[in-house]
Amino acid sequence: MRILIAPDKFKGSLSAPAAAEAIARGVRSVWPDAQLDFAPIADGGEGFAESLAVALGAEWVNVASEDALGRSIVARYAWLASEQLAVLEMSEASGLHRVAPHERNPLRADTFGTGILVAHAIACGARRILVGIGGSATTDGGVGMARALGFRFIAGDGCEFPATPGALPSLARIVRPENLRQPEILAACDVQNPLLGARGAARVYGPQKGADPATVEFLDSALARLADVCAAELGCDHRDVPGAGAAGGLGFGLLTFCGAKIRPGFDIIAEALRLGERVALADLVITGEGRIDDQTLDGKGPAGVAALARAAGRRVIAFGGAITAVAEASGVFDALIPIADRPLTIAEAIAEAAPLLERASRRAAQLIRGA
């Protein structure tokens, strides 16, 4: 029996590699002679760079950067010298996880720290840069990143200003940097939101970053101003591109300031891991993530693994910390298995995720081997 183990992260408790190890321990305790193939996955959010670094054998580069509030941090990205390829996550510098709930400031938070990472990779000679966009603390349309790359933002009075989200309504002109080298940039994105409107960056994601209803409306208007000025000054308008609203509009910023292309993060990971080939070689596929719900079904990693398994005629089971009725009824997976084996608080489930997942894997292996 050859089993492919390809989970995503269990957010807040287990990275994808740690989840794969926990599943493997459960399987091995019942099925010691099973051949296990590890392929931890990610989409465009947290874990994207780690998954690719492991798959490609890349090294980590540490960089002095800033968090979303401008505080000094050390952030990292993965570097594959043989291909001059940099893989980074915007959440590494500008992520919500770096900002405590009481510190969240959507009118101030920006992506300048992410831009420092991009600029560092360019200076190191990167020919390609993969940017995972997700988990952001920002709603700045990518202007912070653009400032780090040398773009200048000019107000109506002719003065240059730091274009934080709260100041964007003053934007009148944008000046490109001279001689900016633009490598190929791919933005890995797991959502389809446009920049503006009911499904846009501010209205959908602003509240989780600390924006009250009035601030949400302000941010949507500020991003509209940015899009208008970009169209007039830079000759491009990406506001309606699916994914432009990802990561507080960083998708829009990468498209506009870096000439990037947006692709589903899972597709990039699947290609790097040769996941289709490995699924076809497996007798059983195991995946999972912390919460399996309608967002999972809408193109996130475990659903992508399931689609590959279906195409290859392989059975796929998924473990989840929480599983919704919508996911149960979807038929996407052959079996959905909750990891909880007794009543637990959320805090307890997070703290005990590894042993819970291992025990769930053991139970599943016992059932499959005895079938």
According to CATH, what is the class of the largest domain?
A: Alpha Beta
Report the count of strand segments: 13
Strand content: 15-25%
Name the overall outline: elongated
Average residue pLDDT: 94
Distance between the termini: 13 Å
Q: What is the CA-based Rg, rounded?
A: 21 Å
Question: Helix share of residues?
Answer: 25-40%
Which fold name corresponds to the CATH topology of the largest domain? Glycerate kinase, domain 2
What is the H level of CATH, i.e. the homologous superfamily of the largest domain? Glycerate kinase, domain 2
Note the main sheet: 6 strands, mixed
| Count of the separate structural domains | 2
CATH architecture of the largest domain: Alpha-Beta Complex
Question: Unreliable segments (pLDDT under 50, ≥5 consecutive)?
Answer: none
Give a written overview of the molecule.
- The chain is an alpha/beta fold.
- It folds into two domains: about 1-40 and about 275-370, Glycerate kinase, domain 1 (Rossmann fold); about 50-265, Alpha-Beta Complex (Glycerate kinase, domain 2), CATH 3.90.1510.
- Helix content is about 40%, strand content about 20%.
- The chain has helices spanning about 15-30, 50-55, 90-95, 110-125, 145-150, 200-205, 215-235, 245-260, 265-275, 275-280, 295, 300-310, 325-330, 345-350, 355-370; strands at about 1-5, 35-40, 60-65, 70-80, 85-90, 130, 150-155, 170-175, 185-190, 260-265, 285-290, 315-325, 335-340.
- The strands form three sheets. It has a six-stranded mixed sheet. It has a five-stranded parallel sheet with strand order 2-1-11-12-13, sandwiched between helices.
- β3 and β4 form a beta hairpin.
- α1 crosses α15.
- The longest helix has 22 residues, at about 215-235.
- The mean pLDDT is about 95.
